[in-house]
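Researcher: Please predict.
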Amino acid sequence: MAATLLAQTSGRALAGAREALSALGRFGIFAGQVGLRAVTPPFHLHLGWQHCWTTTTRCLPPVIAVCTPFGMVLSLQGLEIFELFGAQRLLSGLVSVSVLRELAPVLASVLVAAQGGSSCAAELGAMRIKEELDATEVMAVDSLRWHVVPRVLALTLACPLLNVAGGAAGLLGAFFTAVYVKGETAGVFLGELWSLAGPADVWGGVAKTTIFGATIGLIASYHGFHARGGAAGVGQAVNDTVVRSVLAFITLNYFLTSAFFGSAGP
């Protein structure tokens, strides 16, 4: 009896592993097809700019609303610790490194996945359910090039733009708390702002969010493009997009941070 149960459990585990590998392979093929179309003509740049503008304007207020209080809290808590050692001047350096390297890139990407990625998956899923994508193919129009590539490129561009806005909002929030709430000297805060951070931290955050945006765009487009099962299928595609996008770029964040900043000194 135990041997039979063990065999059944092992069989289910192997079947699940095979299905996961198959799904990963299908996603890889889809990503390759999209990537090839993104670098070969014809290009539909007007569609990409349109989707980018929509995503950026929708996500900008939430990004600022989230990053600003996070910067304020970081400043407040950091100042409590530095005051124990009389090293308040180090606060702005800590805040700039934390915000530019991790806080702004991760928070901006989470909100892009929640807003832009889910919207992309829902739009493509609705078009798949309504057979609009099939109609596009019937008219001899490449649905990947026309519908998917502009959305992927839009998210790839919108994510670093929102990261820059989130970083600025976080630093402003930290400045406000340190200077106007806790009474620190504005000149010292601004003078030490780049004591630990540098241009590499800014460009590193932009590079990370560019990769995160491309990852979110590909995952969202994949789930929306292959949605099945009516309205419930579209909802499942949106849910899978948000969950898997966040898991993917949080995992990527560790490796990218290690590659960009792992051996960087202050």
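Model: The CA atoms of residues 58 and 125 lie 20 Å apart.
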